[in-house]
Design brief:
Chains A, B: One of its GO terms (cellular component) is cytoplasm. Chains A, B: InterPro entries: Isoprenoid_synthase_dom_sf, Polyprenyl_synt, Polyprenyl_synt_CS, Prenyl_diphosphate_synthase. The structure is a homodimer of 288-residue chains. The first copy, chain A, starts with a helix and ends with a helix. Chain A is 71% helix and 1% strand. In chain A, strands 1-2 form a two-stranded antiparallel ribbon. Chain A is an all-alpha fold and 288 residues long. Chains A and B meet through helix 2, helix 6, helix 7 and helix 8 of A and helix 2, helix 6, helix 7 and helix 8 of B.
Chain lengths: 288, 288
């Protein structure tokens, strides 16, 4: 995972060169947000799934960088005072603390824009249909009916009693769809046949759901030092999570079940998918 | 222009259907921002240039809607308290006043995302290369080295003494590039040969520059009622504009010169470009 993270970070470094002149501060804020550490789970997914379909690593790394930019933008905007108002991210001051609010808004906007721009510039051997598909799928995963919609519902439902089904839907939108997209992007790049596309999509969906429940468990159990962001936030904000609904033990068991299910979708890929199977273990056992 | 605006607004209405459920508020804010009036200058440009190259109006209207979404997102974010802090837009409360700050941030994010999504879904007779080009050009016009970069420079340079050349560059980034893109998008859709692409790009560039100077003149001379937003903002914020640098009369003459130059680039298109030539007059003579 570390090796993949380095490949993704190299691509990010190349895709966000620091200019001279007054726009330098904006690019600095973008680089601060996207190059300041993180597990690169989404980038790893792109790279590993792409390698199942023999995609050139340099090509996959650009798509991985695009997804990481999109993820970073969502964190920068979510941390803003008007949103979750969080001062800590990946153990560092969040973007609006390190720079200022206006710069953080613009850096997020520019990262989102750059994510799309990078996708249509990926070298897919002139297969522009694949590039269009990547853009369409990213738009669907991140827009009003994806991540942004999930964030909106999340904010509206603070202090409200949500059912398990409602929380599942909210989290599928807010976190799950981008994780699922990351897996699917690798398959789109590799022009995978449709039955394999479906397996990869199902894998990504269950992995994303397991990841989010594990995140909620960490928010309850972890310390800020471990998780690199403010702990106990959900409870303090009166947010319903699978932990508050099911209790800690049941939530843990549910996450493990989802992770196992995710791994099962990969069985037909055999040894080639070993890193992805290991990832399903990692997402539910991680401490940060 | 009114007829074109209606075509664009019909496309926007179709592309942003109101859902049931908790994400409704987000789409309402998006619709409020993008369907709340406006001249539709950018949409008009897409449609009129596309018609020079015999593009189907329904196809051009979608690209026009995409540009208007992008423009609306930039206004919503620019009006935020952390940015220009403006309560009035198109004669109505700005988005964060009509809704709230978090909703306005998310609505802007979702409009930006949707703009890209719509572009790759345009029916270009399976010409996915053209769709990719549209996305790449929009990214370049709106990202860190385009509109967002211009907004950043604008905020950093408040109260500073900028030269005429610096103001020209700032405005080219902040407003000019999206107007130029709108013209070019019509030519990309129409697969225009490269010499015509260049003429259209040069037309768009000078039209955009003329438009921005005219906007600065209106900000100095107009009333809030006429221009639908707070008047005298630039001077109050200590922002350098072509008016503050050249004086009102010189600025007016410079805008007229640019508009004329823009019209000249269209001469080889003859009668078909009459509406676009009329537009070059309109941008410098408008009162709102």
């Amino acid at each position: 995972m570390k090796k993949r993270a380095q490949e993704v970070e190299r691509a990010l470094d190349v895709l966000l060169p620091l200019p001279e002149g007054p726009e330098k501060r904006l690019i600095e804020a973008m680089r601060y947000a996207v190059l300041g550490g993180g597990k690169r789970l989404r980038g790893f997914l792109v790279m590993e799934v792409a390698s199942l379909f023999s995609v050139a690593p340099a090509c996959a790394a650009r798509v991985a960088a695009s997804v990481e930019m999109l993820h970073a933008y969502s964190l920068v905007h979510d941390d803003l005072p008007a949103m979750d108002d969080d001062d800590l991210r990946r153990g560092q001051p969040s973007c609006h603390k390190a720079f200022d609010e206006a710069t953080a808004i613009l850096a997020g906007d520019a990262l989102l824009t750059r994510a799309f721009e990078v996708l249509v510039d990926v070298d897919t051997h002139s297969d522009s249909q694949a590039r269009c598909e990547l853009v369409a799928a990213l738009g669907a995963a991140s827009g009003a009916r994806g991540m942004v919609g999930g964030q909106m519902i999340d904010m509206l439902s603070e202090g409200q009693d949500l059912s398990g089904a409602e929380v599942t839907r909210l989290q599928a939108l807010k976190t799950g769809r981008l994780i699922q997209y990351s897996a699917e992007a690798g398959a789109i790049l590799g022009r995978a046949p449709s039955h394999q596309r479906h397996l990869i999509a199902a894998f990504g969906r269950d992995l994303g759901a397991a990841f989010q429940i594990a995140d909620d468990i960490l928010d309850t159990e972890g310390t800020a030092e471990e998780i690199g962001k403010t702990a106990g936030k959900d409870e303090a904000a009166g947010k319903a999570t699978m932990v508050s609904i099911m209790g800690l033990e049941q939530a843990r068991a549910h996450a493990s079940m989802l992770a196992e299910q995710a791994a099962n979708y990969l069985s037909s890929f055999g040894e080639k998918a070993a890193n992805l199977v290991a990832l399903t273990d990692f997402v539910v056992s991680r401490r940060s």
